[in-house]
């Protein structure tokens, strides 16, 4: 039959049945199938599946990391805000404290000054008093001496005192009326 | 022109030049082997079958052994090929996916043989009708096997008569006959399609180049190479596309036929 076909088709283009090719085709293709399905496809499939799993894990991991980063960022923002608020508070407080301190110092200084002025005023008053008293005594003594000298007689103690007092009072009133002008001029 | 002058050839010689691949294959690299009355000698076509088979295995085997988590270009190609083959599965039903290793192997095998056949002085194994018909027969056997196995013999045979036929006594046998006939024409067209496409591509290239021999290089013949060589190159490039396309068509149709048989009852 092969010869018959070969006669019909001397060109070999319509090459049927080519028992050589058919036989070896079946053998070769079955061996190829066996080898591929047994030894070649499983590792490729495993590799693809592994990579797929790895990619999925990486995506999950990235997602998780991103979320964590977001949380951290929010946390830091919150902390910064808090710190800023705290700083502002501290600043305000210290400003207030400084203000208070200044006020207090001012007040104390004013009080101190007032006290000093007061004391000085008292002192002046007392000095004036003492001076007046001294002058009065001096004048009295001088009057007594002068009177004794003029009268050359002793006067009763009571009269003496009364006389002095009278003399002084008149003198004082004289001083008061004329001394105002003196006092002003003296300052 | 001197040296370039080419004697015109006779039509017989020209025919031989165009068909030499097929005419001489049986005698080239011939190792006679006989299995009883059957001639299983190894000739040029068988050698190229072996080369193609080995190359198919090596391409995928090497790809499966240099796998790393950070794939290089080669690994990407092999993995893409595998992923492409996996997409064959599930044309009709999800269960059909289990056949994709077969159709993937078929795809790479036919593709490699198609491309090897394009190398000058090689032998295009897929342009041999014995080869393609036997491959199609394998598809046929697997199709019928899956049809009977998944549906059961009775249900599978009954499914050949489409439901809802009018004039049942007449139409049921007729339609069953036609459907069964179709089951046989499927592998026939499958095998012939691959064979005819690859053969035609090769013949066209040889014919274009044969024109140069036919016209010689003298006179009008001097312009023939200027036309036929570019045309042959264009067709050669087109043949590379056809090689991929026909391998894909054969593989995908095999997958579809098997799955159609599996889910015959459901459709």
From TrEMBL, chain A:
UniProt keywords, alphabetically: ATP synthesis, Cell membrane, CF(0), Hydrogen ion transport, Ion transport, Membrane, Transmembrane, Transmembrane helix, Transport
Ranges for region Disordered: 91-111
Molecular-function annotations in GO: proton-transporting ATP synthase activity, rotational mechanism; proton-transporting ATPase activity, rotational mechanism
Keyword set includes Transmembrane helix: yes
The keyword Kinase appears for this protein: no
GO cellular component terms given for this protein: plasma membrane; proton-transporting ATP synthase complex
Membrane topology qualifier: Single-pass membrane protein
Superkingdom per UniProt: Bacteria
Subunit and interaction comment: F-type ATPases have 2 components, F(1) - the catalytic core - and F(0) - the membrane proton channel. F(1) has five subunits: alpha(3), beta(3), gamma(1), delta(1), epsilon(1). F(0) has three main subunits: a(1), b(2) and c(10-14). The alpha and beta chains form an alternating ring which encloses part of the gamma chain. F(1) is attached to F(0) by a central stalk formed by the gamma and epsilon chains, while a peripheral stalk is formed by the delta and b chains.
Record family assignment: Belongs to the ATPase B chain family.
Protein name stated in the entry: ATP synthase subunit b
Name of the coding gene: atpF
